[in-house]
Each structure stands twice: as structure tokens, then as C-alpha cells.
């Protein structure tokens, strides 16, 4: 009598992983992993390759390639990440001497960049009129488009000052191709682009790139890391951008303005950074001055480093309040009585002067 097993293997099919049917998929996955590792973890080449494959099969590129994030740092074009390494160029080198020779001779790179077609006050003609008060020991960094005071203990500037001119706003230069780089003019060494990587914060501009469309060089200067500050993405891309746009509209309307902007820095702030400890501000400010003799007006803004749907008018504060919070004396070359009058104005009066025109 022969034993007949109840289990019949012919009735069952093998399920799950089949090596023969998945070999090509595995090879493709390993190829992508190798490509990713070859480029040092940068996703840009991998995404570009994937989009090529999608085009071949007729699917088109992924959405992220069509809609670039303007706040994302361009990835290094070479595998050694040269732009994440601090440069040895310093103001004492021959190349930097050429770049700064004009400001060394005149005392400032800014006097020739004044609003045109206006009647100037006598105090506007003073060298460095736009700059806040500073001490000889402070690290003042002058670029073609703006001047800043760098605070090494925070690895960022506490103020950036510049004239905002209509012809520079109306230029046709865009930010495509601009790269975040260390500032070679900072003696103590600026932060590095990598200090912000995967920190959860944007590299937020103090002097916006959109204020310097007149020339490629001036726009690229705004991508120096000395002009960057850690900003919450919803803040940088939201209410802060809205404020920058509003000030540009005023500059076009008023044929030029003076702008000072910066973070509120103080000991004990949280930090980010791989190489440097970059302080994360809780608040940011802007102080804007309009001059056209005999007319003059000033406005201040103070904002928390977080997203907001509130009106810009809600962030208008007396400039005196910003000075008390930051310890910075804005526009010290104004006559004392005029300075006190402008800086003590309340929100309602400033809103009427600026938003109602």
C-alpha cells in the first residue's frame, strides 16, 4: 500500500521575492545608491539622472525640478565642497586690497550711492551718514552694495546698512547661479554654508538679493555668509519677504531710501553649526529713513523669528524701542533734536506717514 501525501506542490505557486524577476530592479537600486555616494551625498545629480529616466519613458520631470526653491543653497559644483571651506583670503591680501581701495580712500563705499533727483540735507552729505554708531575696535565690513558690523561671538552681523535705490531694484539680474560663500573680508572668519545644513533654518538674507538687481557682483555679495542669519523658513519666506517687498515699493515710490536691518543679538541664544556656533535670533528689525529736504520721515519694524499672517502694520514700533533692545544708535549724524523727534514717533503716526501715501 503506497502512501499518498495530501500536500500537492503543483497546486501552490511560490510567492514573494523571486531573484530572477527582480534582478534588474535590484541592480538599478544599487546603481542609484552608488551614484548618491559617489557625489558625496548630494541629491542634485541623482535627481537629474532620475528626471532623465522619466523623460525617456515620457513621464516628464518631477515637480521639484520645475519649481526651484529660491531659498535653497545651490549645491557645490565640485565633489570637494570647496565653497564650504573657509577661505584664506583676508583684507591684507593683494586681491582684497584692490576691492577695498575705494572705501579706504574715501572712508566709505556708500557716499556716491545716494538717492538721485532729491534735495539733500547737509547731514546726508557726511561720510558714513547711513551707518549706526560704532567703535574703532568693531569689525566693520564694507562691500560695494552694503556695509555691516560683524559680531564674531555670534558669527553674524548685528546690522547691515545700505541706500536702496530705484535703479538697483529695477535691474534685470536674477539670483540664478548665486552661491552662498564665506565672506573673505571678515577678519575673524564668517560662518560657512555647511553650518546651516540640515539645521531646520534658512540662510536668511539681511540685505536682500532683490535689492541689488543692478549688477551681478552686487547681488553675489548678498550671498556672503556674513549677510546671512538663521531664520525660520515660514518667517523668511513669509512675513520677512513681505516686508522686503513693501520696502522696495516704497523705495520706488519715494525715489530712494536708507535701510538698516539686522537681528537682535544677545548672550544665551541657541546656536546651530557644524564648524561654527551661529546664534539663532529670536527677533529681527528694520529701520527705514526717507529724506528729501525739507521732508523727512522714519519707520521701525520689529518681528519675531516665526511665521505670521498679521499685517505689517502690527510690527511697526518706535525706533527708540529697537535701539533700547539692540543697544544700537541708528543715524547718529542726524541733529539730536531731529533724531529724538523721529525715533520717538508712535505706531499710528508712522503708519499714517508711510502706508497712507
UniProtKB/TrEMBL annotation:
InterPro entries: DNA/RNA_endonuclease_AS, DNA/RNA_non-sp_Endonuclease_sf, Endo_G_ENPP1-like_dom, ENPP1-3/EXOG-like_nuc-like, His-Me_finger_sf, Non-specific_endonuclease. It comes from Spirosoma soli. Residues 64-114 are annotated as: Disordered. Residues 142-337 form the DNA/RNA non-specific endonuclease/pyrophosphatase/phosphodiesterase domain. Its EC number is 3.1.30.-. It is an enzyme of class 3 (hydrolase). Keywords: Endonuclease, Hydrolase, Magnesium, Membrane, Metal-binding, Nuclease, Transmembrane, Transmembrane helix. Residues 143-337 form the ENPP1-3/EXOG-like endonuclease/phosphodiesterase domain. GO terms for molecular function: endonuclease activity. The chain crosses the membrane at residues 21-39. This is Endonuclease. Pfam families: Endonuclease_NS (PF01223). Residues 81-101 have a biased composition (Basic and acidic residues). Its cofactor is Mg(2+). Belongs to the DNA/RNA non-specific endonuclease family. PANTHER family: ENDONUCLEASE G, MITOCHONDRIAL (PTHR13966:SF5), ENDONUCLEASE RELATED (PTHR13966).
Amino acid at each position: 500500500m503506497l502512501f499518498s501525501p495530501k500536500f500537492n506542490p503543483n497546486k501552490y505557486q511560490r510567492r514573494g521575492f523571486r531573484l530572477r524577476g527582480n534582478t534588474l530592479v535590484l541592480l538599478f537600486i544599487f546603481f542609484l545608491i552608488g551614484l548618491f555616494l559617489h557625489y558625496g551625498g548630494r541629491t542634485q545629480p541623482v535627481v537629474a539622472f532620475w528626471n532623465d529616466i522619466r523623460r525617456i519613458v515620457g513621464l516628464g520631470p518631477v515637480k521639484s525640478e520645475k519649481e526651484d526653491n529660491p531659498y535653497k543653497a545651490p549645491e557645490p559644483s565640485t565633489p570637494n565642497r570647496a565653497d564650504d571651506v573657509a577661505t584664506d583670503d583676508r583684507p591684507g591680501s593683494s586681491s582684497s586690497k584692490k576691492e577695498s581701495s575705494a572705501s579706504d580712500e574715501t572712508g566709505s563705499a556708500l557716499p556716491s550711492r545716494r538717492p538721485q533727483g532729491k534735495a539733500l540735507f547737509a547731514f546726508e552729505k557726511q561720510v558714513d551718514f547711513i551707518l549706526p554708531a560704532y567703535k574703532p575696535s568693531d569689525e566693520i565690513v564694507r562691500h560695494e552694495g552694503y556695509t555691516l558690523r560683524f559680531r564674531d561671538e555670534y558669527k553674524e552681523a548685528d546690522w547691515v546698512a545700505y541706500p536702496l535705490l530705484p535703479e538697483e531694484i529695477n535691474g534685470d539680474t536674477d539670483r540664478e547661479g548665486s552661491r552662498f560663500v564665506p565672506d573673505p573680508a571678515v577678519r575673524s572668519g564668517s560662518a560657512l554654508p555647511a553650518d546651516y545644513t540640515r539645521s531646520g533654518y534658512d540662510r536668511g538674507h539681511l540685505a536682500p538679493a532683490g535689492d541689488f538687481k543692478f549688477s551681478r557682483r552686487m547681488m553675489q555679495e548678498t550671498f556672503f555668509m556674513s549677510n546671512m542669519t538663521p531664520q525660520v523658513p515660514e518667517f523668511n519666506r513669509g512675513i520677512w519677504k513681505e516686508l522686503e517687498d513693501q520696502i522696495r515699493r516704497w523705495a520706488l515710490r519715494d525715489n530712494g531710501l536708507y535701510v538698516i536691518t539686522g537681528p537682535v543679538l544677545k548672550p544665551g541664544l541657541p546656536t546651530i553649526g557644524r564648524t561654527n556656533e551661529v546664534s539663532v535670533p529670536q527677533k529681527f528689525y528694520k529701520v527705514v529713513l526717507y529724506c528729501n529736504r525739507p521732508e523727512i520721515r522714519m519707520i521701525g519694524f520689529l518681528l519675531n523669528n516665526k511665521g505670521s499672517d498679521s499685517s505689517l502694520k502690527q510690527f511697526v514700533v518706535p525706533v527708540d524701542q529697537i535701539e533700547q533692545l539692540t543697544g544700537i544708535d541708528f543715524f547718529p549724524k542726524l541733529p539730536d533734536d531731529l533724531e529724538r523727534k523721529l525715533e520717538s514717533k508712535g505706531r499710528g503716526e508712522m503708519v499714517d506717514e508711510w502706508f497712507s501715501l
